[in-house]
Amino acid sequence: MTELSLHRGISLHRIGAMILRYWYLLLSSWPRLLELLYWPALQVITWGFLQYYIAENANFFARAGGTLIGAVILWDILFRGQLGFSISFLEEMWARNLGNLMMSPLRPIEFLLALMVMSLIRLAIGIIPMTLLALFLFHFNIYALGLPLIAFFCNLIFTSWSVGIFVSGLVVRNGLGAESIVWTLMFAILPLACVYYPVSVLPVWLQYVAWALPPTYAFEGMRALLIEQTFRSDLMMEALLINAVLLVASLGAFLALLRSAKRHGSLLSGGE
Amino acid sequence: MTENGKASSRPTVADRDSSAAIAVDHLVKVYKQTRAVDDISFSLPRGSITGLLGGNGAGKTTTIAMIMGLVLPTSGRVQVLGHEMPDESASVLGRMNFESPYVDMPMRLTVRQNLTVFGKLYAVKNLTERIARLAADLDLGDFIDRANGKLSAGQKTRVALAKALINQPELLLLDEPTASLDPDTADWVRAHLERYRRDNNATILLASHNMLEVERLCDRVIIMKRGRIEDDDTPEAIMARYNRTTLEEVFLDVARGRANGAKEAVR
């Protein structure tokens, strides 16, 4: 597998082959499918009831109906998007199949594109039932957000891919010893991206950090839409710009880590 | 390209022998303080079967990994089918394949699903027929729709070999191809490899600890020790040089440091 090789063209055939590989895997294992549904459903039920309780007891939340449950759904898009990407990648490490792929004509960019498609498929399996649960149990219709929902979704999924690409690079370089980073890195973003509260809650110096993270713009945008009925397209454009930088940086980091793995011979070991 | 991103400009084995299936020139790999591969050069003509011998830690796997582009050399050059590795690997990866104990096929996928995925990655034409042919040749029929994880070690080895042959490679790199096989199956696999080489004029480089296998299959043997090439010739010539009747005895001479004495005695 050569480095990025964009100039040589991307083979949809090979990307399709990788998607087929993960699709076979999903269909072969009902616990894997169930796990995709389980956590999002649990999240939305817990936070949905909490939102109900707060709405009955606090005037602000009564006005801002849906901000908590909306935040939960958007957070899950971000978190599950990254997990969907990273778990497909980890499957290759667990199966000791990475060497086979690296020795095949599959190029890194094709591999990453296949992982992105898989993150969308896995996300759809988990999130669509979650949004339907929110609709039927708590009368919160995330799709009523309309076109802004697409802007939120795109920005969150781009960030999730950047994080997924970067942590996959870490695992390629350091083996499965770095696996815990896959599961935990996104949680470092949780308090800073202001998922459940506005940026203004943070100390001023930390607000600069928060505004460096694209998800912050999506969550602020969602609150502006639900509370003030205003779509902040400026926030979405800024987030898109930062996402573009993050995506390029994560690709660069992945290739550098892959090269380092080839230098150190870690592609052959892949273990701890 | 080496791990420092530098390419050598002096004339090399690779320059002199661009028609070779593999041309390795002054190849070095250093891991921290260890010289895993220490300035080796060799060239394999197309259609040959070469055995790479050596004890554990001799540098066989690292050498094969550098040929495949999975490990970057510290210095030196590797050409595969006339292309520089790893820079031009996109031009050759579809024409070569490998089997190694360091990798596995996905366990939850069935044999057929695995071969389908790899066939598509290698853009194999008439894939269904190709899988059927491999299933017949390697006797996979009884378990082709069983998950790879539920196969015996011997069955897994045959599946790995089927994957290695899925694209009818011009160059086949095999690391311990018959390890974990019973003698009957191992013999059967060797016969298949011989037939494959003959029918396709394929080049095979195999690393093995099975000296009988190397004697039977290989028309050339490269013996490595501590990252260096200790000897390189036909099995018969090497055995004569060491005054031995089997490669196993030669291997023991080399491994136990009796090589020079044995060669001196012959002289």
TrEMBL record, chain A:
Membrane-spanning residues where? 36-54, 60-79, 111-138, 150-172, 181-199, 240-258
Its membrane topology, per UniProt? Answer: Multi-pass membrane protein
Question: PROSITE patterns recorded for this chain?
Answer: ABC_TM2 (PS51012)
List the InterPro entries: ABC-2_transporter (IPR052902), ABC2_TM (IPR013525), ABC2_TM_bact-type (IPR047817)
Q: Which Pfam families match?
A: ABC2_membrane
- GO CC annotation terms, alphabetical: plasma membrane
Show where the ABC transmembrane type-2 domain sits: 31-261
Name listed for the protein in its UniProt record: Transport permease protein
From TrEMBL, chain B:
Query: Single GO molecular-function term?
Result: ATP hydrolysis activity
The signal peptide here is none
Q: Which InterPro entries match?
A: AAA+_ATPase (IPR003593), ABC_transporter-like_ATP-bd (IPR003439), ABC_transporter-like_CS (IPR017871), ABC_transporter_ATP-binding (IPR050763), P-loop_NTPase (IPR027417)
Q: Does the keyword Translocase apply?
A: no
Q: Which residues form the ABC transporter domain?
A: 22-251
* UniProt KW Cell membrane keyword: no
Question: Where, by residue number, does the polypeptide cross the bilayer?
Answer: none
Alphabetically list the UniProt keywords: ATP-binding, Nodulation, Nucleotide-binding, Transport
Write down the superkingdom of origin: Bacteria
Q: Which family does it belong to?
A: Belongs to the ABC transporter superfamily.
Report the protein's function: Involved in beta-(1-->2)glucan export. Transmembrane domains (TMD) form a pore in the inner membrane and the ATP-binding domain (NBD) is responsible for energy generation.
- State the name under which the record lists this protein: ABC-2 type transport system ATP-binding protein
